[in-house]
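Re: the pair you flagged

First of the two:
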Amino acid sequence: MPLIKTDYSNTENREYTALPTDEYEMVIEDVVENATKNGAETLQLKLRVRKDLDKALPETNGKHHNRIVFMDNWKRKESKDYDWASIQNIFKAVGTDEGKEYNTIDDVRNALIGKPAKVYVKEEENTYNGETRMVNRVAPWNFSETAYPMDPNANEAIEVKEEDLPF
């Protein structure tokens, strides 16, 4: 049996333009600290459009599953800290317990990674160095509780055919 057999019937050219403005069911895939060349620091969330909701949400998730959007929470110049008040919206949307304390960025990261949320993504023009392009913006207050909770113990189903079994 071959490792792979080429089949181009389901391939398509996909443009990676900004997502259309809408609400998407997403999962927080990563939370990292980043900095620009000029030293501005951000706590960046990597959000992925859930691929398990193609049938339930054909016009949003179905058309754009697996697409990634980033959300930045910049450190404030005055306080030299992140805008933790805005992050509260994300904690609430993913269902973290009220009163829970986080001591490190890793604690925050671990509390958010893998959690689903409904996220309003806005498509807007951005001009930088004289070039205007369409980008996505997500604000912390644009997170709300998912309408499609994920089973943390469930794995994606794997189809195994009789002829694939070695016995």
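Second of the two:
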Amino acid sequence: MSSRETFHIEILGPEADEVQARVSVRTSDLEGARERALRLFARARVPQRTGNPAEAVRVIDGAGREVFHWSRFDERG
């Protein structure tokens, strides 16, 4: 039986440390949290969304360490 870990996903806005949304997910590995983070980031970047578009997304593990970060500059066109 694999253990599940809690990861915290934060969608970041254009201002320094502006957290637009925060989601906690329980998954068996970082890859699952990373995939979820990228899906949430893509949704936060759609043009129809109100407010400032998301600039980045990060994943924080249960110990409070940032274990993944992706910004709009990392996107491949």
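The beta strands are 5-12, 19-27, 56-60, 66-71.

-B.
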